[in-house]
Amino acid sequence: DTGVSQNPRHKITKRGQNVTFRCDPISEHNRLYWYRQTLGQGPEFLTYFQNEAQLEKSRLLSDRFSAERPKGSFSTLEIQRTEQGDSAMYLCASSSGLWGTDTQYFGPGTRLTVL
Amino acid sequence: AQTVTQSQPEMSVQEAETVTLSCTYDTSESDYYLFWYKQPPSRQMILVIRQEAYKQQNATENRFSVNFQKAAKSFSLKISDSQLGDAAMYFCAYRTSFTGANSKLTFGKGITLSVRP
Question: How far apart are CA A29 and CA A104, in angstroms?
């Protein structure tokens, strides 16, 4: 069990470019979450997958954001036409979905800087 | 909607001493889970301790314990015998216990704990 991994760890991009982040959850975890954390704040929920189905999206997730989880394994988060306000740490977490023991395990995050 | 409030942005403790981090929350639900997560500088977030709201007994994990006051909607974390490695940002988080619901976490703003040698 290697834990949740995220790539890249850091991404610097220019405003208007598209970026894509990847999250590999703990194997056999069927729930996967994306959060966004800005400096000095707690993580805020973006979206949630159960297996390959995206079941909830936060209002924070504008139409420039899209997330996928093909085959219920890894997930990608894409931001199109990045803006400076998108600069943040993007965290991924996974859980087993076993109710009552549904602890979320976090990855190291991808830090996005939009110039 | 549920909210989590951590009103102390920073705290400091002497090594080997005890420190208490405060958290309050607001919810209309009667059953839920509360968590404390630790985020060391430039490292990933890890779970410190969790509390089920239906349990009256306060959770304990080695040097970490909570004081859960359901009526007051208060959930504080006590760290005993503080160590240099405890220096981190600590987040209080809430999760519903409704079966089938999105088990997303709602976080407070966090508190930065420094440990003085």
Answer: 10
